[in-house]
Amino acid sequence: MSDSEHRSPPSTGFDTLALHAGQSPDPTTGARATPIYQSAAFVFPDSDVAAGLFNIERAGHVYSRLSNPTNAVLEERMAALDHGIGAVVTASGQAAMHLAVTTLLSAGDHIVSSRSLYGGTHNLLEYTLSRFGISTTFVDPRDPTAFAAAIQENTKLLFGEVLGNPGLEVLDIPRIAAVAHDHGLPLLVDATFATPYLCRPIELGADLVMHSATKFLSGHGVVIGGVVVDGGTFDWLANDKFPTLSQPYAGFHDLVFAEEFGPQAFITRARKEGIRDFGACMAPMTAFQILQGLETLPLRMQRHVSNALEVARYLEAHPLVEQVSHPGLSSHPDYELAQQILPLGAGAVFSFELRGGREAGRTLIESLSLFSHLANVGDAKSLVIHPASTTHHRVEEQALRAAGIGPGLVRLSVGLEDPKDLLSDLKTALRAVEKKLGGKS
Amino acid sequence: MRTQVDGNEVFYGTGSGAPADDARTLIFVHGAGFDHTIWVMPARYFARHGWRVVAVDLPAHGRSQGAALTSIEQLADWLARLIDTVSPNQRASVVGHSMGSLVAMSAAARYAGKVEKLALLGTSAPMPVADVLLNAAKDNDQAAIDMTNTWSHSVGGSLGSSENPGLSNLAVGERLLQQAGPGVFYADLTACNNFKADALELIEQPTLVLIGDEDRMTPARAGLAVVDALHNVQQRRLPGCGHSMLSEQPNQVLDELAAFLPFAP
Predict the structure, then answer these.
(1) Which of A309, A342, B120, B182 could serve as a FRET partner for B66 with CA atoms 20 to 30 Å apart?
(2) Which residues of A touch B160 (CB under 8 A)?
(3) Which A positions 60-119 lie with beta carbon below 8 A of chain B?
(4) Which of B168, B174, B214, B248 would you mutate first to test chain A, the one with the most A CBs within 10 A?
């Protein structure tokens, strides 16, 4: 029998998982929605069960910093959507990044990262983690050979964003993953801008995924949260680079996570050490609100993507716009790659450069009314920001230029409004820019 | 922990235990394509309660060396040699899941002096495997993993509500099967398919049969037939549970095993 004749049984669709994964009607009350378990701790039926919960002999909850039934639904749902074996939710996207890094790396270790990053992540890698002995080399996200060339003896992790911030470079996940694996290293990917609806990095070769759930996952700009998803794909015992998983851990009675937990090793250590000790846990009310967002993620992302592409095309044709950086436009250098990596669309966050530089950018932002000027993306409402003076204001000018951020760069996060209203708002603001520049462009 | 059987290195999990020299031995045997990590929670429980836990990787599985054995009888013979190695002075109790339950039964029938008690999880004797699954496994096709993984979970279990916070049981099962080397899963399924149940009447050891009411791989009626064929047996049912009972209902499985195998130094 040839391979082509084998048929897998149908799997549950993404839209169904977004609504159901990780949760069934509450067996006690019949509640259909996920209950909010607003409890700090959970009663032990007896001493032996208590000991068993602490010793990872039993499944269940002890204390809401470590796990919580509402959070667990969100974790399992995100694992299902990202095709990972498990997840841990965190207090923020930054906490998720920190948890992923510190579960694997210790002082003296090294990261090779894309240089086109969210400013907060850049701060963490460049300035803060270096205080604790973890260094990072930043490379061109479009150049897999640069990732390979930057790997050192003490490198433990490769990192990049599916869609770079704010240049929207598309990370060639299969090629970067191959570089990582050729060197016995895992690849961690930030998929915040894409969400698992548009891109599932684990299916493309990444080993670990993180999201800021504050953005499109929750989708309404009302909570702060993050999540780390473990693909369960990486063999932590294949070399001696990952002692946190391959060597006895004195903080848990000499447990060797990779030997006892196999594919669950990383996510188990992340919970049993990182969440336990650093404590950046998510509140159950936050998990509930993110779950509400996830239920409509497929529908929202379709509209986000179509609205963003319509706005991008409008701007690209406007004489005051020097350049639009949206991977869904054929003018973007990564357009072909985006068609492969992001077949359902290249997201709803993109940037453009106005003729007239900083003054033009400021005038545009202050003339918009539907687009809200704030430091966030992924809201149902459209947002606008000037990265050089906000999200990336701590990044040195040289690093800014390396990341493709010009003084007049404007970043949009296109929401779910009627697209004709968004275009009308932009038209009005661009007229104001034109007037400000004296009709010159 | 590592030992040697037939000149090959054998890996087994101990549940992080440090057993006394005279501790009783409890061997966990995984199912087709899997490894010792499916037993992580019961292994840790029984280790804490004084047992010498041996959650073994069968040859060519997990971190054990050697070629995959191709019949249940070969696996039972190998298990007997493992018992000689890890528990030379006393009988061992054996807990097996799916294919591991066949290995446990065969070892109990063939080596009565080495096996003290049996716990059979998700069992069936015989254990026929559909041609469509065997053929896909023979070609090392992902479809074999998808079929097994889908049929190993109850309808509810496939959507989640994992008792283990934050884990996707479906994906964990998929990854374990994906990690099996080429030909290993097929060898296991072939061994299951060719197993003859004619030795069950020889089993005299106290036996627990644990049955998932929504098991689609080894249906409840097949488990009940095993109960009928054994002499010294007790059965326990797990309502709503599929074949992957260690991930779907880990606490209920542990409770049943703990009741059947009380701590007795």
Answers:
(1) B120
(2) 20-24, 76-77, 80
(3) 60-61, 67-69, 71-73, 75-77, 79-80, 83-89
(4) B168
Superfamily covering domain B2-260: Alpha/Beta hydrolase fold, catalytic domain (3.40.50.1820)
The first and second tokens of residue A267, run together, are: 């996510």
Nearest CA in chain A to B169: A85
Partner-chain contact A24 B44, CB within 8 Å: no
Residues linked to residue A187 through DSSP beta bridges, in sequence order: A158
Q: Which two tokens stand for residue A230?
A: 């473990």
What pLDDT does B191 receive? 98
Residue B162 has its nearest CB partner, among A76, A263, A267, at A76
Each residue's pLDDT tens digit, B122-168:
999 999 999 999 999 999 999 999 999 999 999 888 887 789 999 99
Token duo for residue A278: 């650093």
For the ranges A100-104, A224-228, A392-396, B138-142, the lowest mean pLDDT is seen at A392-396
Of the partner residues B138, B161, B167, the one whose CB lies closest to the CB of residue A264: B167
Which tens digits make up the pLDDT trace of B46-98?
999 999 999 999 999 999 999 999 999 999 999 999 999 999 999 999 999 99
Cα–Cα dist A22/B159, whole Å: 6
> To which residue do tokens 């998808």 refer?
B146
Question: Which residue segments constitute the domains of chain A, with CATH numbers given?
Answer: 42-294 (3.40.640.10), 296-436 (3.90.1150.10)
Q: Which two tokens stand for residue B68?
A: 């995959």
Beta carbons of A59 and B136 less than 8 Å apart: no
Q: Is A28 on the interface with B (CB under 8 A)?
A: no
Active site residue A401: no
HSE-up (13 A, CA, CB side) for residue B76: 22
- Omega before residue A166 within 30° of 0, cis: yes
Rounded to whole angstroms, the Cα distance separating B226 from B124 reads: 6
Query: Rounded to 5 degrees, what are φ and ψ at A412?
Result: -110, 145
A35 with A27: CB under 8 angstroms? no
Q: What is the DSSP letter of A389?
A: G
SS3 A436: helix
Residue A58 annotated as catalytic: no
Given this model, what pLDDT does residue A2 score? 47
Q: Closest-CA residue in chain A for B247?
A: A59
Q: Is the pLDDT of residue B241 over 50?
A: yes
The H or E element containing residue A37 is: none
What lies within 8 Å, CB to CB, of A80 at 6+ separation is A17, A21, A22, B160, B168, B170, B171
Query: Looking up tokens 């009350």, which residue turns up?
Result: A29
**Residue B98 burial by CB count (10 A; 0-12/13-18/19+): exposed, middle or buried?**
buried
| Residues B96/B156, Cβ–Cβ less than 8 Å | no
- Identify the band that residue A405 occupies on the pLDDT scale cut at 50, 70 and 90: confident
Catalytic residue list contains A190:
yes
Chain B environment of A59 (Cβ under 8 Å): 41, 162-165, 250-251
Q: Which two tokens stand for residue A316?
A: 């690209």
- DSSP lists the bridge partners of residue A110 as A135, A155
CA distance B58 to B10: 8
